[in-house]
From TrEMBL:
It comes from Chrysotila carterae (Marine alga). It comes from the Eukaryota. It holds the Pfam family FHA. The lineage of its organism: Eukaryota, Haptista, Haptophyta, Prymnesiophyceae, Isochrysidales. This is FHA domain-containing protein. Residues 74-119, 181-224 form the FHA domain. CDD domains: FHA. One of its GO terms (molecular function) is cation binding.
Length: 315
């Protein structure tokens, strides 16, 4: 046996198809493959943080339940000791932390960054669920900060709008009346944001039955992001969904990280063949990478053997 077979990372084709009759076709073979015991263990499963923009572009880091814990989270920041290091002046020395709670990945802005950590409410052009927005809560919409504040009257609220490009400029204040307030670039919105990154009708604020407010992205191109905590204030933990994006800092140099699920595995299956010319292997698991290391790219490929002539080329 090869070293890979001894480690249990591959299974011989004859073992995988044990019990399948030669004339039974691909169905029995497929059933044998599904019944094959997998060597994957829970601690080997990994979620991946993949950098999409800014200083995070091309950066990847693995999150595993037994490694990224609340006591020993994967830290993100500018310091060399961080598990995911981002070399950008807008990123704090230690900016944010990721860890597992059960099967859920959690994030917190810790110990309290200067430029903030943001959760994107939904993917591009996907309407989000309403997100609770408490007084003092802030949204990043395009290049604008939109902050909910309590107005002078009891039960009255307003929105303060500031540009990420000029933090010293005075805020625009919009009082909230009614049960909804749309936000976007078009003049028909209740809150108009003059920014090219903002969609025509980008998001909305919704008054809940208890009088509180929630934010919802209406399927914008560039998304609506919720700031986890105020400046230099540690945040409470928030769950991160698979395929959800996290923004480290805001503005033109913001670093976008996306949580993805990649299984380092490969498998092969073939249809009915009258003859078996070669030895075949089913690859179930590649050797796991070292902690917090990852592959910058993932390739998926298939090889179509040409021994069967025209039938194989048309498969």
């Amino acid at each position: 046996p090869t070293a890979a077979e001894e480690r249990g990372e591959v299974a011989l084709w004859c073992e995988a198809t044990h019990g399948a009759q030669p004339d039974s076709g691909g169905g029995a073979i497929a059933a044998s493959l599904h019944a094959l015991a997998t060597p994957w263990k829970q601690e080997d499963q990994a979620a991946w943080l993949v950098g999409l923009t800014g200083a995070a572009l091309g950066v990847t880091a693995a999150l595993r339940p037994h490694e990224a814990t609340a006591e020993r989270p994967l830290t993100v920041g500018r310091q060399p000791a961080c598990g995911l290091r981002l070399q950008d002046a807008e990123v704090s020395g230690q900016h944010a932390a990721f860890w597992y709670e059960g099967n859920t990945v959690m994030i917190a802005d810790r110990p309290g960054s200067f430029n903030g950590t943001y959760l994107r409410l939904s993917a591009e052009k996907v309407v989000s669920d309403p997100w609770p927005l408490l007084p003092g809560g802030s949204l990043l919409i395009g290049g604008m900060h939109v902050k909910l504040v309590a107005d002078k009257g009891e039960g009255e609220f307003a929105v303060e709008v500031r540009s990420t490009k000029d933090a010293k400029a005075p805020a625009e204040v919009h009082k909230l009346s009614g049960d909804k307030a749309s936000i976007g670039r078009a003049a028909r919105n209740q809150i108009v944001l003059n920014d090219q990154l903002v969609s025509s009708v980008h998001a909305e604020l919704i008054r809940q039955s208890d009088g509180s407010w929630a934010a919802r992205d209406l399927g914008s191109s560039n998304g609506t992001c919720f700031r986890l905590s105020a400046e230099r204030t540690p945040s409470e933990p928030f769950p991160v969904r698979l395929d959800q994006s996290v923004m480290i800092s805001s503005g033109a140099k913001s670093c976008e990280l996306q949580l993805m699920k990649r299984l380092a595995s490969a498998a092969g299956i073939r249809g009915r063949r009258a003859t078996m010319e070669d030895a075949h292997l089913v690859l179930q698991q590649l050797p796991p990478p070292v902690p917090n290391a990852a592959w910058p790219q993932l390739a998926v490929f298939a090889v179509y053997d040409g021994h069967a002539g025209g039938e194989a080329s048309d498969f």
